[in-house]
Write a structure and sequence with these properties.
Length: 187
């Protein structure tokens, strides 16, 4: 039994040894064209990476708000609505904060206007809540995006982005509130 195994093992060992001991069979032409001598190379300075810089949390929030606009754009305004069949301004704010920022806000504009910390209009940054007086007792809320733009559910246009300096909104601005978002490192 041992003799039967000896022959196959011997042949395998000889074959493997023969392959590893075969002389290099490249011609002098091949050697000349493929020789590589690191001493003959110049050191090249490292090329700067052309990758995009990592976006800041504020940039990510701004982009997220624009994405929310795309998802909700054109959904009609419906007082008391909380779905894609119709939504009011405070429900839009409530759903975006709950589903995308992990913050549970009150459901109505009246109570959202008391959430967080009061800030001046000049201090607005992405994610802040902006409030407007739209009548004697009417109030409206949106989410500030950037450069005077805010996302909201408009009675006439449905979910849209408007500018705070637009004729209608400019004189109706009431207040702004800032909620503590997880990435906020500014006081």
């Amino acid at each position: 039994m041992k003799r039967r195994l000896l022959l196959p093992y011997s042949l395998t060992i000889l074959t493997m040894a023969g392959c590893s001991m075969a002389p290099d069979q490249t011609s002098s032409e091949d050697t000349a064209s493929t020789s590589h001598n690191p001493a003959n190379e110049r050191l090249q300075p490292a090329k700067p990476s052309k990758s995009k810089p990592t976006p800041s949390p504020t940039d990510l929030l701004t982009e997220s708000l624009y994405q929310q606009h795309q998802e909700w754009k054109g959904i009609p305004y419906r007082l008391g609505g909380m779905s894609r069949r119709g939504i009011d301004c405070s429900a839009l704010v409530y759903l975006i904060y709950r589903d995308h920022m992990g913050i549970e806000l009150p459901r109505t504009t009246r109570y959202q206007a008391m959430a967080g910390e009061a800030i001046n209009q000049g201090q607005l940054r992405p994610g802040d809540l902006v409030f407007f007086r739209t009548g004697r007792r009417g109030r409206h809320v949106g989410i500030y995006i950037e450069n005077g733009k805010f996302l909201h559910a408009s009675v006439s246009k449905g979910v849209t982005i408007s500018h705070m300096q637009d004729y209608y909104w400019k004189n109706r601005y009431w207040r702004a509130r800032r909620l503590a978002l997880e990435f906020d490192d500014d006081p």
